[in-house]
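Z., the sequence and structure:
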Amino acid sequence: MKTNKIGFIGGGNMASSLMSGLIASGHSPQQIWVSDINQDTLKSLAANLKVNISESNDAVVNEVDVIVLAVKPQTMSSVAKGIAPLVQQRKALVISIAAGINQTTLSQWLGSDTAIVRCMPNTPALVLTGATAMHANDKVSTVQRNLAETILRSVGIALWVQNENDLDAVTAVSGSGPAYYFLLMEAMEKAALELGLNETTARLLVQQTALGAAKIALESSESPEQLRKRVTSPGGTTQQAIETFEQGGFTGLVSKALHAARDRSIELSMHEMSKQTETN
C-alpha cells in the first residue's frame, strides 16, 4: 500500500486526519497529493505534513491511483463531474466520505465503470481512534478493497457492511455515537458537581473513567453485559445506580434515539438525492 499514490480532493479536518494517519503508518508524504480551493489550507498541509498540494483537482487525479473525495455534499456533483474524464482514463479507485450521496449517484457523475467505496467515518478519526464502515460497489476489486481498508484503518478501525443501506444504521451508531457519550459525560459531570466535587476533579474523573471503560471493553472478549455484571456487586452502590437507570427506561430510550438517528439519516440522504436530481 505504501507504494500507492493517494490523492485527496478537499483538505479539511477529516482529510488531514487521514493524511496524518497514513504518514504515521509509514506512507511517504511524497506519495500523497491534495487539492483544495483554500490556499491557506494547502499551505498549512504542505508545511505540516510535507504533502504535494495543488489548486487543481485534475492535477491531483492525474498523479494518483486512489482518490478520496472529501468535499461537502453540496459541492460533490460539480467536483465529481469535473474529474470524471480523468478518473475513467486512469481507472482509479474512488473513496467517498461525503454523507448522504449514494453509490448510484456517484456512478452517474463519475462513470458507470468507476470503482467506488463509500464510507462513514466518525469524528474520533481526528485523533486516530475512529470507527469507519465501508461499502464497495461491484466494480471494486479485491486489491482495491484491501487498499481502501488500509487507508481507513490509518485513523482507527475499519470494517465492511454487506448492504449500502446499512450505512444509515452506521450513522446512527458510530457516526453520531460520540455525541451520545459526550452527553452521558456531561450529565455525570453535572451530577458530580451536585455531589460536591469541584469542576476539575469531576471532569478528570469522568473522562478517565470513560477512557478506562472503553479500554476494558476493547481488550476483553466479554460482552458489555458481562462486563457490567462483573463490576456490579449485589446490593452495592453500582447496582443501585444501574437499577435507577433501568427504572428510567434507559435501554428503551437508547433504542428510540438510535432509531430516530437512523431514520433522519435516510431522510437527509433522500433529500440530498432529490436536490441533486433537480440540479442535473
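The chain has two domains: 6-167, 175-258. The longest strand covers residues 130-136.

Let me know what you think.
H.
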